Each structure stands twice: as structure tokens, then as C-alpha cells.
Amino acid sequence: MCGEGGLSTADAIPPERKGLLRRYLDRRNRYILERRLPTFTERPIDWSTNLIHTLIYRLAFAHVGKLAVIATYFILTQTLTGQQTTIGRWHVALPDVKGTWDHLVSRGTSHGGFLHLLSQHAWNPLRHLIRGVYEGIFGILLFRQIGYNALKARARRADAPSALDRFITRWMPFVANEHQGHPITPLQYIALPFVITVAAMPGVALGYAIVHVLHHYAHATWLAAMLGAHPSLAAKFYADNYDAVLVGIFAGLTRFVSYVTNPVLDSNTVYFARRRVAKGKKGAWWHPPAYRLFLDDMARYADAQERAQAALAARSSVATAFLIGSWILIFGLAAYGYYVIRYIA
Prior knowledge:
mainly alpha; 13 helices
């Protein structure tokens, strides 16, 4: 007797005579059919193993996100210092982006600043905190991506779009939402960093208010780690702008950011799952548990491979190029970010 998709739901072999591997496969098939992972009360060992497995991936990807932001910040604000160079027969003076950024809204406009809003003493720590906040936001975004449970997200999704969903679909096409009725577009991929920045502002404001209270009223000195004259790599990576990174993590977990990023996380998960199923493969033991479950659920149907191939063929090639290119860029920036913090910063 076979269940849906050909998975065995009954067996003539008595349970006590089954080997460990067979019993493991039977449990796995059961949870595939139920489209969920085991809970702690059902299978405490499996649940603990899944948790540890997921955390390893998530922490690794969170570090990738933090390193990518370090590299991006360095490239955008610290690389161009007004150098002189030659391109062919032309002598070119490159802009002094570093000078402009270092004095952007301070009183040092003679050094490249634009507005007299803050003192230089106030602007210096603020511009460094901006990097820390983005490290937290992007780190938690990749943390959520690698452990994203597409099946659970679909089970919780509302059947009908809300008034906000309808408004965004009609008037803000650059913002992705779960009820837009089409895959993520290239425009939505391009606009995502700016959309996340706006969506994170309430969380950043609230997070900084909490940190301010902890600093000045609870005297939480652990939020203000001080670096020595010659800090170690670990100190530079974890202690520098520690409170700002925590604010970014808090902002990245708010409902505002989840609303604009969940559709993208879901679309990315579906794309990579379809690529594997289109090749006739299922989930592997080394995949994150939620992703492995989603793969097995997608692959359990008789025509799963053909359906995955058709869905990939119908997908926008431009959107696919943006997705693949962005992941290559992220890992490339992370490698350079390690170089920056190890040898330059």
C-alpha cells in the first residue's frame, strides 16, 4: 500500500525488526506527508538535531551578510579619496567621496560636507553606527533566508489579500507582497535595499530608544564595548559597533521588514528548490531541514520534474540573472569584507 506520491505508509515488517535507517526513513516519510517538521514533544532528538543543523547554516550566512556590508561600506565611502589617475590619454581626477562622507552633515563643509546639521564630534560616531545597523539588518536577512520554512509560511498565509496588499500591488509595484499574483520582478529586486531601508526605520528608531534607555538608565556597560589600540580580528568583528548591530538585528525582525522581505525569501527558496527537482533530485541530508522538507514535498508527485522544468522555463530570465548575480556578488563582497577587516580596518 502506498500513500500520496508513492511514499510507503504501511509495511509488512514488524516495527521491532526494522533497522535504524528504515525507521528513520519511515519517520521522514510521515512528516513529508504531513508537510511539517517534528516537534520537540514528538521527536526530541530529531527536533534538537534539526535546530542545531539550522543554526549552523544560519549563523554562517549571518556572518556572510555582515562581511558583505563591511565591504560595501568600505567600497562606497572609503575608497575614493580624490586620487589622480589616467584613462587612456585623459588625466582624470576622481571625486573625494571619503571626504564628503566624513563631513556630510557636519560643520566641516570646507572639507566636502553638504549641510551644517551636526558638529563633527556628533557626526563621526553616527556615520559609523549606520554601518553597524546595516550589518545587523542584512545579517538577519540572510539568517532568515537560509532557514526559511516555505511550507509553514504557506500554511499561515491569508487566503485573500488585505487592503494594504491591494494598495501596494496597484500603487507601489516596486514593493513585493505575498498576494501580487506574479513572481518577483527585476524592479523589485533592484528596489529591495531601498525598500528595506524605509521599512526598517521604525524598528531602528525603537531599537535606538531601547539602547539609549539601557545605556543611560540601566547603565548597561556591555552595550559599549571598547576596542584597544591593537584589537584582534574577533574584537574588530564582534565588538566594534556592537550596540548598532543589535539595533539592526532588532529592526530586521520587525513586522515591517518581514512584510517586504518574506515574498522575496519565499521566491528565492522556490527557485532553488525547482532547480533541484527539475534535475530529478530530492532533498539531501546536508540541506537545512526546512529546505529539505520543502524539496521532498515538491518532489513527491509523479510529474514533479516536468512541473519544475515548466515553471523554470516560464520564469523571467532577467529576474533569474538578478537573483544568481546577487548571490555571487554577496559572497564576493563577503570575501573582500574579510580582507578589509583583517588587513585594513
